[in-house]
Design goal:
The protein has helices spanning 227-233, 237-248, 291-298, 315-333, 335-356, 374-377, 381-397, 399-413, 420-431, 442-447, 461-475, 493-505, 511-521, 529-541, 548-556, 561-573, 575-588, 594-603, and strands at residues 21-33, 38-49, 56-61, 65-71, 80-82, 91-96, 102-110, 118-121, 133-136, 157-166, 170-173, 176-183, 186-197, 204-207, 210-215, 218-222, 257-260, 269-270, 275-278, 306-308, 416-418. By secondary structure, the protein is an alpha+beta fold. Among the domains are: 306-447, Neutral Protease, domain 2, CATH 1.10.390.10; 462-604, Peptidase M1, leukotriene A4 hydrolase/aminopeptidase C-terminal domain (Serine Threonine Protein Phosphatase 5, Tetratricopeptide repeat, Alpha Horseshoe), CATH 1.25.40.320. Helix 2 crosses helix 3 (291-298), helix 2 (237-248) crosses helix 4 and helix 4 (315-333) packs antiparallel against helix 5.
């Protein structure tokens, strides 16, 4: 969808105008109806007039069944209207509000069975196969399908929640749990979030869940079948959190829990405050993928505490978070390890830009999302191009000085939503216009398509070993048995991943060499999804038809878009497999969450862009 229109002046993807009337607090009371796959109940919105002459509030809404809207104080019904529905952004919900500056409005409603924020799983789709499961994913603009709200990151609010679910299911939310009330065959779970959050950080999960304690403020949650594996994998969480505080300042969210999601969860992680959602693809068995946890922990400051004011400035959430994630990595494992991770990120960025096109305006750091579905704009660019810019600034301004500045930036803008100009102005005022800041070409970095204009100098020690092994394979004439498993004995997992990334982009391989690589290293048996992704993409690139069964099995058992989308695109490009790939998607699409189903359909040219 691309209409070119902005729904409101400050956020192209939200009808709401919090600069006129702002929601400052929400009380949520909902019942989870698994039989009909709906949430039913009400929300109380505490509102404050910024413009005291304004007589209405505008909320975002996708397919909510609004039953009534009233003034909570006196029970008076309030007039409201629901505007025309746009395919992606839903409808404007306009409510006539009381004349006083502050009031509370109660909206009684239920969600649609097709709510894009909610994934209802049958027992068969869970690990335990006995109980159903519900989880949400509201970022970037799906909270409006779960509750009527100002669905823009430009405004924040506190919230409480009372969620009722059938026994023996447990309810978790992006808030601090307070109490559980027994109601016979149901239980009601009470939560409180006292730190102001934006709408996309409201999160819920309901399932047969158990926990193990990692520290006084951290637990890991999952279905019982994988709790031991999860507790082992994420044992380092308290150390990561402590290191993040050294980088960013005090942790304000009271608790930090992890929830291992069902396989259909579309992201590596989601930084819901107090309760990070993580993909089960992180359970590699060797703790090699906990960088994703470091990333989500970093979001506790960059993204959650200091927030992009709309998704045109998404790099301020994600580029900053990758920067903090790698700072954590460097403090724990050494600076060379941090910089090697940055080199791997650059490879991912090159692939993303090759896929999008070097002149695609969505490869800029600051983008124009007028009329564009933010799900369609999602890519590696804000993450890795954003990180590259911040690393460049660190090198330019001095590591020690920039790191002190970075912590002060978070302190200055905590609890606020900001744009790129806020960061630029603060950095210039902090260092002074006569400093090395004068060398920064802001327009070149922020508003130019393609790869970053300057690639900083990185430590290549770990990369050199990968390149050396790649060169051996590229120069091999195919005669003799020159390679064996011990080639990888000195490699860290991250180096194996990077080696395969280099293989994938190499033009000096043949199918026979790829088959020889499987014989030597047996990548088919890897339990690490990052390795499998690059390996299976290589197999598809060189049209190894016997590997297709393994490729389809991989994309049908994970809903993580990082893995599913590149492989579907690769399979679509292989003409002989295109029809079978589309059939595979049609057969399995309803096990995907909305955002994955929606974007893969675009990748397979099954919907208009």
């Amino acid at each position: 969808m691309s209409t070119g229109k902005r729904l409101s002046p400050n956020d192209p993807g939200s009808y709401s105008l919090p600069e006129k009337v702002a929601v400052t607090h929400i009380d949520i009371e909902l019942d989870a109806d698994f039989e009909n796959e709906k949430l039913k109940g009400f929300v109380d919105l505490s509102i404050t007039k910024i413009d005291e002459s304004c007589d209405h509030i505008i909320l975002d809404n996708i397919d909510l069944n609004v039953i009534s809207i009233k003034n909570k104080d006196d029970g008076t019904l309030l007039d409201y209207s629901i505007g025309d529905r746009l395919e992606v952004f839903g409808s404007k919900l306009e409510i006539r509000i009381p004349s006083i500056k502050k009031s509370i409005i109660r909206i009684t409603y239920e969600t649609s069975k097709t709510a894009s924020a909610l994934q209802w799983l049958t027992p068969e789709q869970t690990l335990g196969k006995v109980h159903p499961y519900l989880f949400s994913q509201c970022q970037p603009a799906h909270a409006r399908s779960m509750l009527p709200c100002q669905d823009t990151p430009s405004t924040k609010f506190t919230y409480t929640a009372k969620i009722t679910a059938p026994k023996p299911l447990t309810v978790l939310m992006s808030a601090v749990p307070l109490e559980v009330i027994d109601n016979g065959n149901k239980r009601t779970f009470l939560f409180e979030q006292t730190v102001p959050v934006q709408s996309y950080l409201i999160a819920i999960a309901i399932g047969n869940l158990v926990s193990k304690t990692l520290s006084p403020i951290s637990k890991v949650w999952s279905e019982p079948e994988e709790i031991d594996k999860a507790a082992y994998e994420f044992e380092q969480t308290p150390e990561l959190l402590k290191t993040a505080e050294n980088v960013c300042g005090p942790y304000v969210w009271k608790i930090y829990d992890l929830l291992v999601m069902p396989p259909s969860f579309p992201f590596g992680g989601m930084e819901n405050p107090c309760l990070t959602f993580v993909t089960p693809t992180l359970l590699a068995g060797d703790r090699s993928l906990v960088n994703v946890v470091a990333h989500e922990i970093a979001h506790s400051w960059t993204g959650n505490l200091v927030t992009n004011r709309n998704f045109e400035h998404f790099w301020m959430n994600e580029g900053f978070t990758v920067y903090v994630e790698r700072r954590i990595h460097g403090l724990l494992y050494g600076e060379s390890s941090r910089e090697f991770a940055a080199l791997g990120g650059l490879e991912d960025l090159k692939q993303s830009i090759d896929n999008l096109g070097a002149q695609n305006p969505l490869t800029k750091l600051v983008v124009d999302l007028s009329g564009i579905d933010p799900d369609d704009a999602f890519s590696t660019c804000p993450y890795e191009k954003g990180h590259t810019f911040l690393f460049y600034l660190e090198k330019l301004l001095g590591a020690a000085e920039f790191q002190i500045f970075f912590k002060s930036y978070i302190d200055k803008f905590k609890y606020k939503s900001v744009g790129t100009e806020d960061f630029k102005s603060y950095l210039v005022s902090y260092f002074g216009e006569d400093s090395a800041v004068s060398q920064i070409d802001w327009d070149l970095w922020l508003y130019t398509c393609g790869m970053p204009p300057i690639i900083p100098s990185y430590d290549t020690t770990d990369q050199d070993a990968c390149v050396s092994l790649l060169n051996r394979w590229e120069q091999w004439d195919g005669i003799g048995n020159n390679f064996k498993k011990s080639d990888l004995d000195q490699f860290q997992t991250t180096q194996i991943i990077q080696f395969l990334a280099l293989v994938l982009k190499s033009n000096h391989f043949t199918l026979s060499k790829v088959k020889a690589m499987q014989e030597a290293y047996d990548y088919n048996s890897s339990g690490n999804c990052e390795i499998l992704l690059r390996w299976l993409r290589t197999c598809v690139k060189f049209k190894w038809i016997e590997q297709l069964e393994l490729v389809y099995k991989f994309i049908n058992t994970t809903g993580r878009m990082k893995y599913v989308r590149p492989l579907y695109r690769d399979l679509y490009s292989w003409e002989e497999t295109r029809s079978k790939t589309i059939d595979n998607y049609e057969k399995n699409k309803m096990s995907m969450m909305y955002v994955c189903r929606h974007t893969v359909a675009k990748d397979l040219h099954l919907r208009n862009c």
